[in-house]
Design a protein that fits this description.
- The chain is α+β, with helices and mostly antiparallel strands.
- Strand 3 and strand 4 form a beta hairpin.
- Strands 1, 2, 3, 4, 5, 6, 7, 8, 9 and 10 form a ten-stranded mixed β-sheet that branches.
- The chain is globular and about 90 Å long.
- The chain has 13 helices and ten strands.
- Among the domains are: 144 residues, no CATH class; 90 residues, no CATH class.
Length: 387
């Protein structure tokens, strides 16, 4: 009989078990929970994200209700007290490195496709109540921050990091490796002259907004080949340098482009790109909105708002599990070539998670009585013809 794996097994297929086992051994992930290994832990938290289970009891009930699929998934029944203990003690590095392994597979093709890749850097707050000891306050929110390096062409995260809310955004940016030929887009929260200089020295580019208190000296005005874009108009394109009386120096080529939106708002962007037109650079900065849509999607479709435990380790594991679930859904959409939107595809996966069917035809109903033989296909069947 032909074996058809469940939708859950098909979604998990990009995870190489050998590499995952090596990650667990490297971080001694099963030191305290030998009866509930890292693989089963990852399955439970990913199951919770894909199905929307938001409590230990909901995860236990939903997971154990499908025990007939546990053998092929390589796991057993789940106990919520065991899951709670694992959430508190299992090293976060196991899930973090697994996420890195998955996004490296996603980003490899995008990095090799073109040198002029566009990558967006930003962060989103994860608000937590004062019952969470790991939460910190930055004056606006109380909780954690999720930092993301997002590839625009592949529409996927390339790097992620969780920090307290009071950690400056530039800390994540300065820790990223810089790739030659890539254009990095970020907002004014990533203002650091030394980092900008290192991007330029690596033969990469950046597009960002200057802070309001920066003063500039115009060196030359550049002609505008085209000024009208999608929802905005270019007003000026100038080569500038930083006009500072102190020790602040920015010894790199810079362009200052003034943009007016159709609603009347006017703002500046700066870049070290000499070749692209002002219209192209303005479009690059407009594309930064895509990472806001990404943050909106994961908050609406995955669970990083209601946490199943109050300790820091469990909170970080749940956020990483949400990112792993997103990447797995993205990979499944990419491999199947589905035309469904990410949200619709995620809803179909949640609806048929433990159904045995082809994930490429997840929206198609199974044939009626597929096991019943077709009389017409039987060579021993006598056929009568009536005049």
């Amino acid at each position: 009989m032909h074996f058809t794996s469940s939708i859950f097994a098909a979604v998990l297929k990009p995870i190489e078990r050998r590499r995952f086992k090596a990650i667990v051994e490297r971080h001694d992930g099963d030191a305290y929970d030998k009866s509930f290994g890292s693989w089963q832990h990852m399955l439970a938290l990913t199951f919770a994200q894909l199905t929307g289970a938001d409590s230990l009891r909901a995860i236990e009930t939903g997971f154990n209700a499908q025990s007939n699929h546990h053998y092929h998934l390589g796991c057993g029944k789940l106990c919520r007290s065991t899951l709670a203990d694992a959430n508190a003690r299992r090293p976060v590095a196991v899930f973090s490195e697994l996420l890195g392994m998955l996004v490296n597979g996603l980003g490899r093709k995008a990095r090799n496709a073109a040198k002029q890749a566009l990558q967006i850097i930003d962060s989103t707050p994860v608000p937590l109540s004062h019952m969470f000891a790991c939460a910190a306050s930055n004056g606006r929110i109380h909780g954690l921050k999720l930092h993301i390096l997002h590839d625009l062409e592949g529409d996927c995260p390339l790097a992620a990091k969780i920090t307290p809310a009071n950690v400056n955004d530039i800390t994540f940016g300065r820790g990223l490796p810089i790739a030659a030929g890539v254009t990095y887009v970020f907002d004014k929260g990533y203002c650091h002259f030394g980092w900008w200089t290192s991007i330029d020295n690596a033969k990469a580019f950046f597009v960002t907004r200057p802070k309001a208190n920066m003063r500039w000296k115009t060196l030359r005005r550049r002609p505008l080949e085209a000024s009208r874009g999608d929802g905005f108009t270019i007003k000026a394109d100038r080569e500038v340098k930083l006009a500072s009386k102190g020790d602040s120096k920015l010894p790199i080529f810079l362009r200052r482009i003034t943009i007016t939106r159709d609603n009347g708002d006017t703002f500046d962007i700066i870049s070290n790109d000499r070749q692209r037109s002002a219209l192209e650079l303005a479009a690059c900065y407009k594309a930064r909105w895509q990472i806001e849509l990404f943050f909106k999607w994961i908050k609406q479709n995955l669970n990083i708002k209601k946490f199943i435990a109050f300790n820091e380790n469990a909170v970080r594991l749940q956020i990483l599990a949400a990112m792993i679930a997103f990447v797995l859904i993205h990979l499944a959409r990419k491999l199947t070539g589905t035309k469904h939107s990410p949200r619709r595809f995620a809803e179909l996966v949640a609806a048929f998670l433990h159904t045995r069917r082809n994930i490429a035809r997840i929206d198609k109903p199974p044939p009626i009585n597929p096991s019943r033989p077709n009389p017409k296909s039987n060579p021993d069947q006598l056929t009568f013809a009536y005049a």
